Amino acid sequence: MSGRSNARKQPKVKEKVIIDENNPMLRAFQAYAKELDAKHDRYERIVKLSRDITIEAKRIIFLLHSIDSRKGNKDKVLEEAQQRLEKVIKVNFKAVAQELQNLDPYQYRGAYAPGLQEFIEAYSFMEYMRYADDNQTSMSDWQQLQGKMQYTEAETNDEISAEMKEHKLSFHVEPSEYILGISDLSGELMRRCINSLGSGETDTCLLICKVLQHLYKGYIGLSIPRCRELSRKIHTMRQSVLKAEDVCYNVKVRGGEAAKWGLESEKPNVDIDEGFF
Question: Name one GO cellular component term (predicted).
Answer without folding.
Answer: cytoplasm
